Amino acid sequence: MRGTLLVPTLNESGSIGHVLRRFAAAAEAANRERFASDPIAWEMVVIDGASTDGTPEIARAEGARVVTERRRGYGRAYRTGFAEPLGDVVATSDGDATYPVEEIPALVDRLLREGLDFITCDRLAHLDRKAMTTEHRIGNWLLNTFVAIAYAHYLKAAGGATLRDSQSGMWVFRRSVLDRVTLTQDGMPMSEELKLEVLLSGLKFAEVPIHYAERWGAPKLSSWRDGRQNLVFLLEKRLEVARRRRTPTPAVVAASERPSGR
To answer: Would you call 206 exposed, middle or buried from its count of C-beta atoms within 10 A (0-12, 13-18, 19+)?
Structure first.
């Protein structure tokens, strides 16, 4: 089996080496123990936003393949990465050392054992108090509350699924998931879009709590700007889904029932 770790970066020279080394060590250990009978051949792919601080060079030195994406946007980076040759399983993480990449092999094991299609990680369950500003906490609470209320019907239809952390950027999923979802967002809302598309497509989904740590380096998010953008997307997506579900599917007419044209 082949696996791909995707990491979007923009000037993460202080942390990217640490992230990649930590993941590589965990993957190697898991192949000796957890996956000894069927080791996973991992590749690390960094989607870099034309960093100027040496991030690509550090990533390459750690064995990663670097893809440069000069167009800005968190979602744009991932959509570019998703178009690259990928393994049978895909894992994602930020390059700022906030996500516990050493837990990815265990998440892959769970994905395979339980026959899941997609796992997303809940940062809020074990949150380091220094990892998120008050404004960011409030924004996350508002967005997650909106999802719970506005999408309650669809979450219930998806087997009573919950989405406690709609903004998480750490996922583990089967490559085939990307053939079942439609992604349109280039900004931060792509994270919400992907999770909602997975749920609405009837794919097998789980949310797993993780320990989310303090970021290495200066934050790049704007809590209010990005929060507003995310909220607008969630509202527009909810309206679009409702319209789509109300539109009847055209009936398929059997060949024997079609007019002959004579």
So the answer is: middle
